[in-house]
Amino acid sequence: MRYIPSGPAERKKLLLALGLEHAEQLFDSIPETYRLKQPLDLPPPHSEADLMAYFRGLSRNNLDPHDSAVFLGGGAYRHFIPAVVDHLISRAEFYSSYTPYQPEFSQGTLQSIFEFQTLICQLTGLDVANASLYDGASALAEGILLAHRVKRRRKVVVAGWVHPDYLRVARTLTETLGIEIVEVGAGGGGVVEPEAAARALSGDSAALVLQQPNFLGRVEDAEALCRAAHKAGALGLVVVNEAVSLGMLKAPGSAGADVALGEAQSFGIPLSYGGPYLGFMAVRSEFVRELPGRLVGQAKDSEGRIGYVLTLATREQHIRRERATSNICTNQGLCMLAATLFMATLGKQGMRELAQQNRSRAEYAKAVLSRTPGCRVPYSGPSFNEFVLRLPKDAAKVHRSLLDKQIVAGLPLSEYFPDRTQDLLICVTETNSRAQIDRFAQEMGRAL
Amino acid sequence: MSVQKNPPRRREGLLFEKSAPGKRGCEVPAWDGPVADALDARWTRDEIEGFPELSEREVVRHFTRLSRLNYANDEGFYPLGSCTMKYNPKVNEKIARLDGFAEAHPLMPEGAVQGCLQVMADLERYLCEITGMDAFTLQPAAGAQGEFTGIKMVRAYHQAHGNPRQIVLIPDSAHGTNPASAHLCGYRVEEITSDERGCVHLGDLKERMREDVAVLMLTNPNTLGVFEREIGEICRVVHAGGGLVYLDGANLNAFVGVARPGDMGVDVMHTNLHKTFSTPHGGGGPGSGPVGVKEPLSRFLPVPRVVRHESHWKWSSDLPHSIGKVHGFYGNFGMHVRAAAYILANGAEGLREIAETAVLNANYLRKRLEGTYHLPYASASLHEVILSDRNLEKFGVRTLDVAKRLMDYGIHPPTIYFPLIVKGALMIEPTESEGIEDLDAFVDAMLRIAKEAEEDPEMLRKAPHTTPVGRLDEAAAARKPVLRWTPPVRPEVS
What we know:
The complex is a heterodimer. By secondary structure, chain A is of the alpha/beta class. Chain A has 13 helices and 14 strands.
């Protein structure tokens, strides 16, 4: 097999050194009854060329994104990825190493995690960030568990439109610990009224969870909601689905959040049909020992030289076992590196402009689409790069007919909320040109 | 003994220290439409304080330099036990980056992503065949999340039979993720002791196997690299008490293509695609931890499930007893593609050759090192061998010193101080990806270190001597943690 360096002669030599005649003898400790008598039923071995051809063929059974105008968000976002990102994460020193257990041999990984932690702190306006979590959804679950540990209360209030899949994952991951997740519906403006949230909070609430911007794209009054949480003695958890918004919207920490968490796929990570993505979490410094996952800190060697190490490991499963803050071990190392590269390359100005431009394009799309006869934008308040468009007829049907015109007309909300049959959730990023948006509006007019 | 000192090397500054106002590494694409009115200031932020400003050139140089401070598997021997640091085939990287896969949005209509669904359905089928399980979910993003998913299904199974039960039995040699995952599922953990062979103590198991035990979490081969020969009897004991058997498949590489957990009585298991199936370790992820079940547990699998409908693949959430969702979308698809490509590259014979070579390599290392290094358990080794520092104690040299010194020989240290049941453990897993030359080079380094322990223990205690930084004081770092860069405080102008 081409990936194995030992040829027949070396195999023989190694077997001989062990005094064995056949490789089968290596497995003497596995009872005979369990050993396979015939080979596995798998396709035959493929050469590299055949492998490439086979998968290229399969990949062509997917819609070609370059032939289409895609206006799809809802927790995964299509953004431009600078070439440096893929180039550098493809360096074997990064992608073929593992968790930096031996710091003297892993300073590259450790320093980039330290930089990532700093960048996330700066973006979220909070004190400490961890080295990543699996994805936004599991980050929410971990945030809820953190609040539960800190507050020793069992109820979590979810305010308004948090990504429904995040809530489903959070429920799966937290319900057996007796945590109850209560949802407060949004008001008519597509956002939660802080008074409604305040009424739902009580002395047994560990946290209030809000998403900024929310699942319908609307900007929530995070400040008022966090104030309400604090008044009830609960933590304010802000979920960020679309990390690009952090370049423009008020940092969660400045809005009073105790924990900011979410998904940073937008930062240089391909859509890749839903994963691998990049969960993140940042907290106020008082909760540092309750953080899940890896953390990197600064250290010194005997000559006083600065280096970086994995630290505060006594929170973690390999030391604390069932009393750990989380069961997470492997996290999203290479995705974290991609995001660090993305943020470093865009830089302070780039992050701001990218956010502004996403909003400008979305506002333009909002304007031209809402001029299509029969269409309207039901929530008129501030939004970022996503908004709801209400059609005069069944949105899923229109969505299907536009697909034939190479337009992916956002997400029919009926997929998540069966009664929302006329709503499309539309996302516009810097990858959508003006011509694409104009064509979308024209075809929409024809389809109605 | 002469010691090569660290070469003088300039520290690579942080991104933030290199930043200077007005620079950028990337422009935002041109927009010829109207600029949106600014949002009200109550919703917006000022500039991102402290965020770096660098040219593309500087970013590339910074991260290239950082990369060179790392040791990597493509560079040399990386025998990190339990992590299966095998070779990552380059073609898999190319396949995962094909536009059709890399740019597929997870909420695309099913008709527009038939290629992705086919890959996932195929991988589920391959994993069923390889492990002997009846159904797989690819959703868990890593091994630990796989454990959670598996144990959560166990809980749902018992719940459906009237009582979720209370206890999870876990051998004392298990990975720390096992008890942590069991706890997250609301279970109390009880440890099973290992016997003198390093295997599950059957007597202890029988004693603890009561009616409130939900499941036994078994790693096989266990973390000592020893196959639990009595797995048949173990499963019978647990099943007789109404419990289930969970297999931590972290060590599947030891017997892939040789035997199948599903034929041994295992009810539910996870496998790590970043171990047995070669997806890159990435400096600590992304991983992927698919979970396989036997038929009686399949109605509890996470949703959605990929199913065949006439001539198409589609997603189905029609599984009323499902435990729900564990991932925002469908799992780490990018890893699924790579694993599927790896399985197809190998075929049945290739997979078996992997196990044979991995076990052969581990046993060769054992043969050449035992004696010089203490071998705490004499049982036959499969894919990894566990040694300890006992023979070096008399020189005041510990496992940590051996590990650090190995770096001076250009070799990544094994996993150390794990499993916990071995004092001063050195957990060595060569995988199939090493040839005899690299194995011998490792043996030579280990033998020389043992000699150095006798002749110059002080030098070992100060190792490593050739790395970019010397031995870092981790205890001091944890006492007063510095977890982010902060701008230097400017001296007050008097």
